[in-house]
Amino acid sequence: MKKNQHTMQDPTTQYPVMDIPRQSQAEPGLDAELHPKADHGQHSYEGTERLKGRRALITGADSGIGRAVAIAFAREGADVMLNYLPEEAEDAEQTIRICQESGGKVVSCAGDISSEQFCQELVGRTKDELGGVDIIVNNAGKQVYVESIEDLSTEQLEKTFKTNIFSMFWIVKAALPHLPKGASIINTASIQAYQPSPGLLDYASTKAAIVAFTHGFAKQVASRGIRVNAVAPGPVWTPLQPSHGQPQEKLQKFGQDTPLGRAGQPAEVAPVFVFLASQESSYITGEVIGVTGGNHLP
Fold first, then answer.
1. Catalytic: 203?
2. Among 45, 84, 145, 203, which one carries the catalytic annotation?
């Protein structure tokens, strides 16, 4: 029997504990060079038209959680705009192909969301090419492990905040005049917002800011019929990890210290985004849902 996201399984063995070899990639990292490969749900996710007729903008959609969300949204009937960095084109082409097989409209826009001008252009292209926008997924992120604050450059600090935080402000500011009642904004936070690793000071700080933004902005736009929520993943296997997101000694045991005993896969995160994008979550706003393998949020 083919298993999908609805099939009951033992979560401790649904995916194996990975044998992760030593590996390193240049930023931003590619799924095409990731070992072992991540599961994005391309062989298992089955849609039920929960997002039929919706139009979604997804940043960081080339690989990892972004790719899994794009696949799930497309199979749920949404038209999607996929954003990625130009150097991630190889991964993005694969994501585009998989999404197109679902039959909906799939458009893409390569560019760096650490630029305010590009964020404005991205929203404009989404509106023009999809005929509007109902869902925004602020997912793209920068994570680089630095052992000591003494070695954390101002250049990295600024780039991390522009990519993870500033872009979120710029995108929702540009999109807000075009969002209809019933629209949903979903931000990718992290367990790092609550349990920061000492070597991820800048990254963890941005994720904590995303949580605060989600709580505050949800209240600001509630009267306009727009919901704002966040998903906080724990250790999920993506190209972010071997592209300097983790030191080698942690990378090889990645996720094994969770109560479920293994790292998560992007396919296990995407259904939460679907839920928050759908009308099923109509009375949920300003919330953060953890997908952490058992390391609970406060």
1. yes
2. 203
